[in-house]
Design brief:
It is a single chain. The chain folds into 3 domains: about 90 residues, no CATH class; about 70 residues, SH3 type barrels (Roll), CATH 2.30.30; about 160 residues, Rossmann fold (3-Layer(aba) Sandwich), CATH 3.40.50.1110. It is an alpha+beta fold.
C-alpha cells in the first residue's frame, strides 16, 4: 500500500464525508485515457482530527485502485482484470471536490415513449452525466426508445430491458444523414478497406474519374448524404487534365449540397511514388488549380502536403499500404474536426 500526503485544505473539503473511519468509493470515468479505476480513500483518525480542527497541515491517505484490463492506461499502472493494485494519486482541493460529486439531475417523463435516432456513435450511460458508468454504445442511426428528458440536456432511454441515458447532442427525431460520405476512385475504395464503414458511406470505383463522378456519383449523393453529412471528394488522379471540369461540376452543385445540410470537402490528389503514368508535378498543378478556383464554401484538405511530410508506402507507385490509408484518414478527420 502506497501513501500520499494531502494538504489540510483538501481534507477540509472531505470533512463532510468523514466518520470515525471513512472509506469512500468512487467510480471516475476518464474518457481520453479509457480508464475506469475504482478508487478507495481511507482516512486515518489523525487525519480526521486534523481536518476537524481546520488546521493547514498534512495527513496520510491510503489509496487503493482496481483497474479493468479492457482499458488502456497512460498514467496509471494496473494489473489483470479482477486483481487489486496499489497506486499513488495526487488529489488537490479542487480535484477532491470534483471527484466526490456526481452530476445531479431530474427527469421529466414522457406520457408515451418517443422513437428517435442516434446522430453519431455514442456512449450509453447509467446516469445523465459523463461521470456515470458506460453501460453500452450505439452506432450512428440506431433507433432508440426515448422515455424522458433531463434538466441537464440528456435523454432517458430504454436500453437492454433497463433505463439508461444518452447525451441530447447525439439524439435526433428523424434518421440523420450518414456522418461521412467518401466519393472517389480506387484510392477511396482502398481507404474503405483500410478504415471500414460503420459510420461512413462510399461511392467509389477503381479507375474512374470525371465521367463517373457526373453520371453515377452525382445522382447517388442525395440518397446517402443529408443534414449533418460531411462529404469528402477525392477524384483526379486518373484524369488530371480534367481539372476545369471538376471545378465546374462541384461549383454548380455546391448550393444544392449546402442547402441539404451537407458540408463539402475536396481532398487534394495525394502524391505518387515511382509511377509510370502520373508525376507529382502534374498532381501539384491539378491541386493548385482546384484550390484556387473551387467555390470558397468547399473546404480544402491538403493530404498531398501531409503525406509528403509524414511519408507513405506504395507497392505500385500509385496505391498505398493499409497503414498509409489509415494515416491519411486520421489526417482527414483531424482537419474536419477542427472546423
Amino acid at each position: 500500500m502506497k501513501r500520499q500526503n494531502i494538504n489540510g485544505n483538501s481534507l477540509i473539503i472531505l470533512s463532510a464525508f468523514a466518520a470515525s473511519f471513512l472509506i469512500i468509493t468512487i467510480l471516475a470515468t476518464h474518457m481520453d485515457k479509457k480508464i475506469e479505476p475504482v478508487v478507495s480513500l481511507s482516512i486515518s483518525e489523525e487525519a480526521k482530527e486534523t481536518m476537524n480542527a481546520g488546521q493547514d497541515s498534512t495527513a496520510e491517505v491510503a489509496i487503493d485502485a482496481e483497474y479493468d484490463d479492457d482499458y488502456a492506461a497512460d498514467d496509471y499502472s494496473y494489473t489483470a482484470k479482477g486483481e487489486e493494485a496499489s497506486e499513488t494519486v495526487t488529489v488537490s482541493a479542487k480535484e477532491a471536490t470534483a471527484v466526490l460529486e456526481k452530476t445531479v439531475y431530474t427527469v421529466t417523463k414522457y406520457e408515451a415513449p418517443v422513437s428517435m435516432y442516434t446522430s453519431d456513435t455514442v456512449n450509453v450511460r447509467s446516469g445523465a452525466g459523463t461521470d456515470y458508468d458506460k453501460v453500452g454504445k450505439l452506432k450512428w442511426g440506431s433507433n432508440v426508445e426515448v422515455t424522458g428528458e433531463t434538466n441537464n440536456g440528456w435523454y432517458e432511454v430504454s436500453y437492454k430491458d433497463s433505463t439508461a441515458f444518452i447525451k441530447g447532442d447525439y439524439v435526433v427525431q428523424s434518421l440523420p444523414g450518414i456522418p461521412y460520405l467518401f466519393v472517389g476512385d480506387s484510392r477511396t475504395v482502398q481507404l474503405k478497406m483500410a478504415v471500414g464503414s460503420s459510420d461512413k458511406a462510399y461511392i467509389a470505383e477503381i479507375g474512374e474519374g470525371y465521367s463517373y463522378f457526373k453520371s453515377t456519383v452525382l445522382p447517388k449523393i442525395s440518397t446517402c448524404a443529408g443534414n449533418g453529412t460531411k462529404m469528402i471528394i477525392n477524384f483526379g488522379v486518373n484524369d488530371l487534365a480534367n481539372a476545369g471540369k471538376y471545378i465546374k461540376l462541384v461549383n454548380n452543385n455546391i448550393d444544392t449540397w449546402i442547402n441539404a445540410g451537407i458540408t463539402v470537402y475536396y481532398a487534394a490528389v495525394t502524391p505518387v511514388g515511382n509511377c509510370p503514368t502520373v508525376t507529382n508535378a502534374q498532381i501539384e498543378a491539378f491541386n493548385t488549380r482546384l484550390q484556387t478556383e473551387l467555390d470558397p464554401r468547399v473546404n480544402w484538405i491538403d493530404g498531398y502536403s501531409y503525406l509528403q511530410q509524414a511519408g507513405f508506402s506504395t507497392a505500385d507507385g500509385l496505391h498505398y499500404s493499409s497503414d498509409t490509408y489509415k494515416s491519411l484518414y486520421s489526417y482527414y478527420m483531424s482537419v474536419i474536426n477542427q472546423q
